[in-house]
Amino acid sequence: MCGIIGFIDRTKSRMDGSSIKAALSLMNERGSGDGAGYAAYGIYPEYADYYALHVFFDNLAEPKKKVDELLQQWGEIVHQEEIPTIPQPGIRKVHIPWRYFFKPSEDLMVGRMASEKDVITYIVMQVNANVNGATIFSSGKNMGVFKASGWPEDVANFYGIENYKGYIWLAHNRYPTNSPGWWGGAHPFNLLNWSVVHNGEITSYGTNQRYVEGYGYKCTLFTDTEVVAYLFDLLGRQHELSHEMVVRALAPPFWDDIDRMPAKESELNKAIRLTYGSALMNGPFAIVVGTEDGIVGFTDRIKLRPLVVGENGSKLYISSEEAAIRGLDPEVKNVYTPRAGEPIIGRFIE
Amino acid sequence: MTLGSVPPKFKVGIDRDQCMDCGRCIENCSYEVYRREGDKILIESRKCTACLRCVAMCPRDAITITEKPVDYRSHPVWTREIREDIINQARSGKIILSGMGNARDLPIIYDRLLLDACQVTNPSIDPLREPMELRTYIGKKPSKLKFRKTESGDVELETKLAPNLKLDTPIMIGHMSFGAISLNSHLSMAKAVKETGTYMGTGEGGLHKALYPYQDRLIVQVASGRFGVNIDYLERGAAIEIKIGQGAKPGIGGHLPGEKVNEEVSKTRMIPLGSDAISPAPHHDIYSIEDLVQLIRSLKEATEWKKPVFVKIAAVHNVAPIAAGIARSSADAVVIDGFRGGTGAAPKVFRDHVGIPIEVAIASVDQKLREQGVRNEISVIASGGIRSSADLAKSIALGADAVYIGTAALVSLGCRVCGNCYRNLCPWGIATQQPELMNRIDPEMGAVQVANLIKGWTLELSELMGAAGINSIESLRGNRDRLRGYMLDEGMLKILDVLPAGA
Amino acid sequence: MKTLRIDAKGMHYTPLNQKIRAAVADGVEEITLDNVLGQRFIGDGLRGNVKIIINGVPGGDLGVFMSGPTCIIHGNAEHAPGNTMDKGMLVIHGSAGDAVAHSMRGGKVFVKNNIGYRGGIHMKQYEVEAKPVLVVGGTAHSFLGEYMAGGLVLVLGIGKEKSMTDRGIGSGIHGGEIIIRGEVDDYLLGVGAKKIEFTESDLERIAPVIKSFCEHFELDPTEFLDTNYTRIGPASSRPFANKYVWE
To answer: What is the predicted ipTM?
Structure first.
């Protein structure tokens, strides 16, 4: 179930969404037409200093009033509009996608929140848990998630995805099982600049959920992938672990491997397992995460889901199937499958 | 005595056609149910406790034991037990003591929780072929890690880890003291935990010399009586446990009757021969949480901060905030003992009526620790009525790190749960200090039986996890998503934070 | 004799104890700690025959789990000095808090002035040589020798009209003895405690303890060497046996 794609151009040269749309459609066999989505980084250069909040509203009356009020309590909305959409026969527009460009104000934060990102996290959790008829599904800077229930081409055409230009693209084609095929449940999942596309099922979800909820995150989107975004935010942002260490925590080496390592390395890995045992993700998964400074792809510890990597100069591709990568870039070189739990990291070149 | 006698609890019969008159029943029954008169074996049923030693040893299966051969007029309110307790107290005017754990017929929550398995959307894992990790560390864990870069560019761990116990399987044997049970029982269990890579509690009765070879697998206990506690004892243990309370009798202390305090027990406990070993209800140097901190730190200071210190409490109504307080006290693990926990002897009214079930205690403690952001500060060990690998798996899914078993380990040594532990007559050689009874346990054989039990449960736990698509115990811990409640009411489901079956 | 002086001013107890341990391991026979103020657990679990002179007020659990050393304290002590002590000695030139000598099963605790509640609680002995002794120069508050299972508690009542005026003496006592200078009102005795005649042979038995105490605090022992004492012991070695009936 599900097909995923991750793309980065390490020189931040931007690519429009048309080829991603085509590549994702190549993997239609992996989906069921119940959801698809795209995340693109670098699409809002004119508002690069503002958090782009993408919201699904059920209507523009009561839910929107509540979100507007909450945002005004914390900062300034510099611009807002309905996200442009084009009606598609295959998509029933059950929500109104909206975007705010928003910045928390220093003077409203003082003594209440430590950082802008804490404010944004708080607002996302508040709206998603407590405001009926509103779901914030994207909250990063200079990036945005576009998703809905439907087949990949339909969703792409609905949002006019080819009109956006980004240097990171994530895409996902969904075959939902454990949660309803609703718009909020489609991938990518996002919080701040973390976006996640995921193929598989996380059998440790209950454990991971309890763990992140202990830090104030609220899992409200009825699907296991959401928790991955929060794990990355917690470990990567709050605990300041490197991407490599986050992946090590989420898909750590086996104990018998750790026992065979040199003492220092063994101690380090033991410390990771002891400290972040509740963050360990179990079950079959292949994941690509978009971040502020690149993308990270990895699979579960026993490689129960496929993941293929390809490179071409400054471009790095990660996908469920090689076909998608070749669809994106027929010239791709160095195609390989990574080891279980091995992080594939693409970072911007300064 | 106008009350007369109450009806016998059991009726013992011998099938005389089958009986070969070998006399094993006479030899084996320490309660003296059987005696020989002339060429006949006579039976005194009233003395029988249904320990089934005679049945187990009879080569011809000639013995039958019937429960309640004469019963009272049935009554839903005035049960036999209630009536007999009243008669007992009318005779004595005393507090009724009883052995083993809570014997009331209350619903067992474990039996109403169901485990999950994978179908299609994710694969089951076969523990025979694929890695299955049960390794568990008990102790304080950092809530986050810090790294630094060395000059050569390597990433190095900056955070220092606190001492932890490494368990190969999340099953430990809980604290049952030498004195309450025999040395051979202790030896059997100590050998078994050494073999299976886990740990055992010494109980509060000190550490007998014969157990020194197993000391790196022993958790030494410090209870209010401080029996056998000195610096040697503390240094020998792999970890130290402060016993505040016990699930079978929350809020009260314990008295080992003087008749069980023979020379070995006296030496090991460091108390006079034949005197009662009295554990007061509270530790008299702990009247508040900050005093607990003081005791914990005094133990750590004594052992130079090299050993984890556990704190064991009975599961009482307020268990969650108490555990959260303990999490902030420098303790490394909190042991929660539920109201079904066993005991050699407890006032019946406490055993049967005080405290709460371990299942809800785990759920609320785990929840509270997480709410307060201190779950990593402390490991949670659950005990009190863990009967099977299913109970074990459910305990971990509710949020425990590991469990202590007690009665189950004794049953693996032969105990038939007859509940007469306090009489020093245990025919299975467990709850007795009489050498000829204790010698009925061969520690080598006993160790095999106890180790077999631990191994069997460990295999079953691996299979259960594999079926749920989980290959590491961390991913089962607190994974209430993989539990469903069956015939549990809404309030209970809410406390357990578990969905009903079908949802 | 190898000696060491440590200025404990502002020092946490862990490094302080580490220094003491290292010194003992190094063969130091006398350690003087200056400016002690509130450091808990001094001498915790310490072995050996070292003498530790403490100038100041040590914190709680002084000499807890200690097995051998002697501590001379020039100041008061707080909560539970001598807690679960095995061997060795505490000589306190002042008063001490509650639960002094809690669960002590060997060694001696001498307190020049007064102690708080539950002094000598749960003291116990099991072999002749392991016999704990607590001597109080002044008086003690309630529940003195509670749950006592062995050893000796001696209260001299120096400077007091009556040595003991607080209740609950020896409540739950099931071993050992409490000896109090002068008369003790019957109502002060706790449950399970009873008076036993104090004889010349008892005096002979405790005379060395009295002399040793007086020597430490430079007192004249002669005024204490008579039979004007009340001896309190257990009514039974099984004080609670009659409270229970089996199921």
So the answer is: 0.91
Q: For C59-182, where are the E strands, in sequence order?
A: 67-74, 87-92, 108-111, 133-136, 149-155, 175-181
The residue among B121, B165, B398 with the most chain A CBs within 10 A of its CB, best to mutate, is B121
Interface check for A180 against chain B (CB to CB < 8 A): the answer is: no
User: What does the block give as tokens for B487?
Assistant: 């015939």
Q: In CATH, what is the architecture of B10-71? A: 2-Layer Sandwich (3.30)
Residue B270 has pLDDT above 90, yes or no: no
Size of interface B-C (CB pairs under 8 A): 149
pLDDT at A1 over 70: no
The pLDDT-based confidence of C242 (bands split at 50, 70, 90) is confident
Q: Which structural domains are found in chain A, ordered by start? A: 3-347 (3.60.20.10)
Per cent of chain B over pLDDT 90 is 83
Q: Is the pLDDT of residue A180 over 80?
A: no
% of residues, chain C, pLDDT over 90: 89
Is the CB of residue B376 less than 8 Å away from at least one CB of chain A? yes
Nearest CA in chain B to A2: B121
Pairing type for strands A51-57 and A96-104 reads antiparallel
- Strand segments, DSSP code E, in A105-193 are 134-138, 143-148, 165-166, 168-173, 189-191
B197 touches chain A (CB under 8 A): no
| CB-based contact A273 B474, cutoff 8 Å | yes
pLDDT tens sequence across A96-130? 999 999 999 988 888 888 899 999 999 999 999 99
Question: How many other C-beta atoms lie within 10 A of the C-beta of residue B7?
Answer: 13
Return the closest-CA partner of residue A176 out of A208, A193, A207, A200.
Answer: A200
pLDDT at C129 exceeding the cut of 70: no
CB contact under 8 A, C172 and B284: no
CA distance B194 to chain C (A): 27
| Homologous superfamily of domain range C95-241 | Glutamate synthase, alpha subunit, C-terminal domain (2.160.20.60)
Amino acid B331: pLDDT = 96
B313 vs B39, B325, B392, B448, C95, CA distance in Å? 55, 12, 19, 31, 34
Q: Tell which CATH classification among 3.40.50.20, 3.40.50.300, 1.10.300.10, 3.20.20.70 matches the domain B170-474.
A: 3.20.20.70
List chain B residues with CB under 8 Å of C247.
85, 88, 96-99, 348, 419
pLDDT tens per residue across span C32-50: 999 999 999 999 999 999 9
For residues B173 and B406, give the distance between their C-alpha atoms in angstroms, rounded to a whole number: 6
Rounded to whole angstroms, how far apart are CA atoms B133 and B402?
14
Domain ranges of chain B: 10-71, 170-474
- Please tell me the number of Cα atoms within 13 Å of C89 on its side-chain side: 14
pLDDT band at B285 (very low <50, low <70, confident <90, very high): confident
Average pLDDT, chain A: 92
The answer to whether A302 contacts chain B (CB < 8 Å) is: yes
Alpha-carbon distances of A280 from A247, B481, B482, rounded to whole Å: 9, 15, 16
Query: What's the CA gap between A34 and A15, in Å, rounded?
Result: 26
b/e map of B210-244 (b: 16 or more CB within 10 Å)? bbeebbebbbbbbbbbbbbbbbebbbbbbbbbbbb
Least confident of A17-21, A81-85, A107-111, A340-344: A107-111
B130 close to A (CB below 8 A): yes
B300 touches A: beta carbon within 8 Å = no
Q: Please identify which of the residues A1, A2, A25, A317 carries the catalytic annotation.
A: A2
Residues in chain C with CB shorter than 8 Å from the CB of B97 are 244-247
Tokens standing for A200? 């598989």
Q: Which pTM does this prediction carry?
A: 0.92
Q: pLDDT tens across B74-84, in order?
A: 999 999 999 99
The confidence score (pLDDT) of residue B1 equals: 60
